[in-house]
Fold:
Amino acid sequence: MVINFLHRKGIHHFKTHIQGSYGVLNYPALKFDYARLGIALYGVLSSPKDRIISNTKLKPVLSLKARIACVKRLHKGEALGYGLIYKAGKEMQIAAVAVGYADGIPRELSNKGFALINGQKAAIVGRVCMDQLMVDVTDIKGVSCGDEAIFIGKSGNSEIMAADLTDSINTISNEILSQLGSRLGRVSIKNNSRR
Structure:
């Protein structure tokens, strides 16, 4: 090991670091001076398939929410979005949400992703635009301008984890979370509950 080699050469006054989030969570017996925690600071793992051996219970510390700018009727046969790639097969209610790829929503979620509105899934329809995206709210009652659309977080009994966004677009939570743009407003909430 390099550390032992350096010690044998008389080099002793240095700090050691080798572990990131997964190293700390899977190899707690290793003893080094520093650890570089990354994704674990968000309280999530990189992928829903990832496992850790420690008994640490990660708790997500981030939500991503945006407001609905307007709700409009889309008639059967009409199309929407850049390139008109989404065509309505029936009468629909569409909500425009004020968030887009400039805020960190991957364009790859076009026609694949979803948001939670009033505790229900609303599919992203059409292309994710720079400043907005559209979701299908046809089957969600009472949706109106100003309502929250949740892309990461909880709504009612439903939840979207950062890792839930990754499978359909072949990426990891780290990429999703590191791309959240500076245009997004930040709200810190102090939680005094101990669980």
User: Anything to note?
Assistant: The CA atoms of residues 108 and 169 lie 6 Å apart.
